[in-house]
Amino acid sequence: MTDSTFNALVLRKDDEGKTHAAIEQLSAADLPDEEVLVKVEYSSLNYKDGMALTGTGKIVHTWPMVPGIDLAGTVVDGGTSSYQTGDRVVLTGWSVGEKYWGGYSQYQKVRPEWLVPLPQGLSTQQSMAVGTAGLTAMLCVMALEDNGVQPADGPVVVSGSAGGVGSVAVALLAKLGYQVAAITGRESSHNYLRQLGASILLSRKEMAERSRPLEKSRWAGAIDTVGGDILARLLAEANYGGCVAACGLAADFKLPTTVMPFILRNVRLQGVDSVMCPIERRTQAWNRLAAELPENMLNAINQVASLEELPELAQAIIKGQVQGRVVVDLQA
Known about the structure:
The protein is of the alpha/beta class. It starts with a strand and ends with a strand. The chain has ten helices and 15 strands. It has helices at about 45-55, 125-145, 165-175, 190-195, 205, 230-235, 260-265, 280-290, 295-300, 310-320, and strands at about 5-15, 20-25, 35-45, 70-75, 90, 105-110, 115, 155-160, 180-185, 200-205, 220-225, 240-245, 270, 300-305, 325-330. Strands 3, 4, 5, 6, 7, 14 and 15 form a seven-stranded mixed beta sheet that branches. A six-stranded parallel beta sheet has the order 10-9-8-11-12-13, with helices on both faces. The chain folds into two domains: about 5-120 and about 300-330, Quinone Oxidoreductase, Chain A, domain 1 (Alpha-Beta Complex); about 130-270, NAD(P)-binding Rossmann-like Domain (Rossmann fold, 3-Layer(aba) Sandwich).
């Protein structure tokens, strides 16, 4: 491999600060000075990747950058780590694709502590159909469980339900026996969400209306990916002792609420982070995903794309036009 070249999608910034994405031929000497060399088979497209490729926000911290916050593949050289040649691994988070080179490359060098062994029964393609979005969804479900939310307590509502995190969250909750309510702004997503297991469909427009400090109790739990007015409404509508797991800010980072849901209904707002999640909980989440997310659900949320298609798809995901998960095939 050391004498050959391979494809990677590289971001560069021009003198005017504009981001440009192009496929370049790299060699092993171009890769970062990290310990484990991985042959990348699949990556994925997340909202954060869309921001990086389009130059939206300040996602990329070092230039040039190979984006892609997820990757899955086979270890070529484990260095002095415990990983051996041929081990199948998955990587999500740790600021890869932001501060460190990421998954949009046919080979990548990474730190061993960023890796998780690929769970038994899960292919590298399936793991990227899960990716950061699915890992985050599983961590949100685990947060609800940790806070005592059980299927018998009532419905659980998911915002951004047709997106990556939302799709996996709906599927997981339904598989675990919860009644799932799905918030979406696209009527065209209704059949898709029903197939994933949602039994209640809610309008994003309705749920984004500014709520009173307390509304009628509706939800035993909630998984929120958007923030802003929708998160405030979910808190105001939570049952006594309910829990809202918040993991995103696709709509707004602000939270226009009061203390009333917390002090009058004993509602808990649980933040969920997948980027720096400790390896023990991360491994537990991956193993549960392999065991509990049905294969037909993985296929339902799986769209395969090439490196060449990513700039256009990045524009689409920023505009909210991508349904489910996009898996990036690095083997073509």
